[in-house]
């Protein structure tokens, strides 16, 4: 089939020269005089001054705002033979960018070097010491301290199993006792800024061999280095966060040939991509164990008798190759037919780490009981995916009033990774288990069809009605296949000088078949659960955008968008009961732009978004003869999420309305209030401490209540910018800029001393040893930043 | 239906629709509608005598001369540019009749009076390759947009002859609710100037969904930069293999790591099992329980860190 499709595409493109065209090739006589530029550009040089309080890393995030000299330059030259431009920004800083482009009509080059920092936090600390050897990053703790903790002479992780005093951590009093203890590692933790940077070098070249034939080549390579916060844990109550080092590179090569003329286009391309991770294994010391528990404890992942170290496999090196052919053909009656076919090959064959680093398990004594752990089924991953992708599109406007677009798309994600038997595996490096399973490669095959008819109405208006069908066949999921049937209608009025209107409504109904409840049950899930990415659902979405220009200097814009997804499977047994049940989004924006005179412009936009969601779950134990909570509806609970966001931005530009002076002001604002409301019989049970099914206490002890609502997560960000530039002469200008940026946030997941924000006032001082964890302190915290620039510009 | 049969059926359906439509349209277009507008008359190449020359145009339209004196349309070393062919008349059509008639607007192609499709027909006679090749029938073309909806040859404000100073500002005129997301505190580096809309999208038409410019699926697009998530892995996580946007909002989010919902609640939408996944994680647990570590800091992924997939033999639950 693939060969026939390729041949058909090629044949169509090589059809006779009698095909009509929209505009025949021109016959030049004497060309207009070529524009010849002088050497032009600008250099600006000056100083930047930044002061910040609070979470400075979040202020900078993707920038380098350090105080110091600041330099930027732009250069371009266009002659009758070539065009050349270059641009450098933030020279010498971690976010510097350097670009250059050249073209002489036949040959074009471009080059870019760009650095993007990712600043996580300057407030983080860690008691671990990092060393790297080969491709392994190792985080070590003081062995003497670890021994003290293991011998219960000191607290390593609050509430970790086996910790002294307050280890139970299941009541206010025991928790208070635990929090009063503090971890011995707290005092040993050293400041460790968590930062990373992506450096990209991108090179592109194209050669126009003839007017119709172009060869192109691109090389992109980017390196990521630095550290990022990473979870690494040993047990339910011993979770650790480490500043894991990054040292990886991705290199992409693309080569293509494209033939284009007024009749059509044909392009062949190959893309190769290689991801190389120079640090692919993480090893870290257990803060509560100095030695492996030997012999291993079958409950070692929950009672603290675990391993001395953990080891996990970081993202492996991988590669991807894509070959593609794209074609386009112009047909009579303003019609085009285009298509693409590509084959993708993704591979990953990294060496596998052993089952465990725990030598109390990796030995013949344990292998006698767990023979599967004596060796790996294979030594490398042998992971492989083959993708086949095709799309064909037909578009025609044979008559001024009518148009038709028909599209078909095929995607086949075929996972060819051999199965890996991990029925026997090691949990948390602590306990060998026989409850594992075999790897499950997911395959997805997609067929998508769309047809749209357009009709041109008076007054620059177009009506479009369309139908879409999207079918996905999957393996390894609860449903074998899903099918989305959608209808949409849109109206677009564009080109009218006073009014522009865009509106679209879409209804989609997803059905699913081949439901296999065993997939859910094998994964330990409730049979009434449906995964929302494949669950039957109905979707309604609509958007309207209206722009009115009552007079030339004013335009008003109003937009409204709303969508709702409702998930409901009543066709299968049992019916859907759990998971995401619905989500809704609403957004509206109102804006105005005014240009009262040629050199003055101002405007503002206000937007309001709201996102709500509703999900259902059941808080239950595995079913036993004496515990029927698994099927008890009194264990059900619901969660309503409600996020409200306000956006506002405004600007004023006064460009040389005052002689020789440009003035610009800007204001951007975004705030969010995100609430979480638990409800349902289980919540009532916790609130009253009465299990309605058993009549016994629902909480773990005799509390009046053991439910506390979570406070909303709120944040507010705004930025004020001001820029003034005075043109002293045609070549020299002086400039000054000021940026003010402020961010406030309250997030219960942020733990300061003395506790979770929202319950306690934020102090900006991370607590790294909160309940059951030893973390870096990375979280969401407020900041305020002031940045000023003074610059001299030279234009040439 | 077998997938290969389904594929053939889809292609045949497209071809059948095309053939039927062409037959119907051939009948429909036999009427007087076509040819009513002078801009649609030209099918054959105009004779050279019909051109007036750019110097003639500039005698009246001097303020528009920048387009053929500066900028990409003025690069005479490129034989495909207007300045190397017919100058102003490369886009506006032969102008001798217009000039001879004293500026009769009915005798020249007035771009601002054309529909979006008609404007695109003009521009794509030259801009018909590379990232512009698949414009016809693309999402923006279908919505009656033309090249001059976003670009201006004579009054550009930004790079690539955009009608606004930046892509963010331009795209925000229609996609405001999307561009507003760049101000959320978890965002891609768009407002910092490191990325822009065209870093991920080819608004002129692409082979991928949602006008994504790389690959043929959402995941292929995202992993072109985030290659460490590409895998394939020994242990796969189903929503990751499905699409990154199942869990992430690439335009910006008020949740950590640009997730569509906060953890642990996002994970609890799918993990309704026994024991800790469907535990009620509330303020009581956060302040009075050893299960607090499922709520604060990295929440679920403080343990299940390899959430995008694991290459560890013991990594079934993404713990290693």
Question: Would you mind describing this structure in some detail?
Answer:
The complex is a heterodimer of chains A (796) and B (320). Chain A has 796 residues and is mostly beta strands. In chain A, 8% of the residues lie in helices and 55% in strands. Chain A contains eight helices and 37 strands. In chain A, the strands form five sheets. Chain A has a 26-stranded antiparallel β-barrel. Chain A is globular and about 80 Å long. With 320 residues, chain B is mostly helical. In chain B, 28% of the residues lie in helices and 0% in strands. Chain B has helices at residues 3-28, 54-60, 66-69, 89-92, 96-100, 116-123, 139-142, 167-171, 176-179, 197-200, 218-222, 238-242, 265-268, 283-288. Residues 22-43 of chain B have low confidence and may be disordered. Chains A and B meet through strand 11, strand 12, strand 13, strand 15 and strand 16 of A and helix 1, helix 6, helix 12 and helix 14 of B.
Compact summary:
The complex is a heterodimer of chains A (796) and B (320). Chain A is mainly β and 796 residues long. Chain A contains eight helices and 37 strands.
Chain-wise SSE layout:
The complex is a heterodimer of chains A (796) and B (320).
Chain A lengths: L1 H12 L26 E15 L1 H5 L7 E11 L4 E7 L7 E7 L3 E15 L3 E2 L2 E5 L2 E5 L2 H8 L21 H10 L2 H5 L1 E2 L2 E15 L4 E23 L2 E24 L2 E14 L3 E5 L23 E5 L4 E14 L3 E14 L15 H6 L13 E17 L2 E14 L5 E2 L2 E3 L3 E3 L3 E2 L5 E14 L3 E14 L6 E13 L5 E15 L3 H6 L14 E15 L2 E14 L11 E19 L2 E19 L17 E23 L2 E19 L1 H8 L24 E15 L4 E15 L26 E2 L8 E13 L1
Chain B lengths: L2 H26 L25 H7 L5 H4 L19 H4 L3 H5 L15 H8 L15 H4 L24 H5 L4 H4 L17 H4 L17 H5 L15 H5 L22 H4 L14 H6 L32
- Work out the largest interface and the residue count of each chain: A-B, 241 and 160 residues
- Give the N-to-C terminal Cα separation of chain A: 60 Å
Q: How many H/I helical runs of chain A?
A: 8
Estimate the mean pLDDT confidence of chain A.
Answer: 92
Shape of chain B: elongated
Biggest sheet of chain B, in brief? Answer: none
Helix content of chain A: under 10%
Query: What Rg of chain A is obtained from the alpha carbons, in whole angstroms?
Result: 32 Å
| Low-confidence segments of chain A | 1-34
